[in-house]
Amino acid sequence: MCAELRQVAIGCEKRVRSFKGYDVNGYRFHTTSYERSRPNRKTTNSGVFVPGNDAQDYYGRLEEIYELSFYGPKELKPVIFKCHWFDPGREGVRRTPNIGLVEVRRDSVYSGTDVYIVAQQAVQVYYLPYACQTKTCLQGWDIVHKVAPHGKLPVPIDEDYNLIDPNTYDGEFFQEEGLPGRFVIELPDALEMDVDNEIPTDEDEAGDEVTNEGDLQMLERLLLGNDDEDNNPPTDSFDYLDNVDSDGESYDPNNTM
Predict the structure, then answer these.
(1) Between 55 and 93, residue with greater pLDDT
(2) 105 in a domain, yes or no?
(3) Which of 12, 38, 228, 236 has its CA 20 to 30 A from that of 61?
(4) What percent of the chain has a predicted confidence (pLDDT) above 70?
């Protein structure tokens, strides 16, 4: 027999310490009485879940938190949770495995006498009543939601990787499908645009005839791929004539080309 177990067998002090809250396993737990004393609270931390050794899952509410002190040379002070447990049978817990839904009957009571657990066994949950209370099948039942520990990510399970090859990452990723059907946005109406809906006639498509000699030269240069106007200044431009140096030796007033 180990020393710790021998010490536990001796017994603990009759005087124990009690708490209203306790942090363990990445959760912050509060007793039910403490939460009821704070009607304007924004969180609920009294829900407890423990998987049993009898293949049953137990759901309940935290009632008391005790710190025991065992006799002996070693300081041994485990923290114990006293809980109100719901009936783990069909009268107290409903399960829908295909969608992962668990419901508890809030007025059900576990018939056993073992209502204590070690704090390190506790997993935090919270219970959410149905918004619709007109249906008899929903009245008195709460939905169970598990709480993720603070600072810890949920542990992945095998089902998360069934569709993906871990070696090549090939596979089918989940993609939520869009809504059926389609819709059309009328941009002119949405942006208050004016649209010219007149159908052009043959005369409109023909356009105006170009007769200006300078425009014709420009179009010809564009067709030949020489559209650099800097290298082809218009000869009939006064600005061009003003920029010609009349004192230059090559200046010929009779020849401005």
Answers:
(1) 93
(2) yes
(3) 12
(4) 63
pLDDT, tens digit, 9 for 90 and up, residues 220-239: 777 766 555 555 555 444 44
Q: Which residues contact 79 (CB under 8 A, 6 or more apart)?
A: 19, 22, 24, 65, 66, 67, 68, 118, 119
182: its two tokens: 């389609």
pTM here is 0.57
Q: Is residue 222 part of a domain?
A: no
The pLDDT, as a whole number, for residue 54 is: 83
Confidence of residue 144 (pLDDT cuts 50, 70, 90): very high
pLDDT band at 255 (very low <50, low <70, confident <90, very high): low
Pick the closest to residue 54 from 125, 112, 141, 122 (CA basis): 112
Q: Please indicate, yes or no, if residue 237 is contained in any of the structural domains.
A: no
Number of domains into which the chain is organized = 1
CA separation for the pair 49, 52 (Å, rounded)? 10
DSSP string over the chain: --HHHHHHHH-B-S--EEESEEEETTEEEE-HHHHHT-TT-S----EEEEE-TTS-EEEEEEEEEEE--B-SSS----EEEEEEEPP-STTTEEEEGGGTEEEEETT----SS--EEEGGG-EEEEEEE-S--SSGGGTTEEEEEEPPPTT-PPPP-GGGGTTB-TTT--B--------SS-----HHHHHT-----PPP-HHHHH-PPP--HHHHHHHHHHHHT---TTTS--TT-HHHHHTS-TTSTT-BTTB--
Name the β-bridge partners of 49: 59, 123
Please compute the mean of the pLDDT values over residues 172-189 and round it to a whole number. Answer: 58
Q: Is 41 among the domain residues?
A: yes
Q: How far apart are CA 71 and CA 74, in angstroms?
A: 8
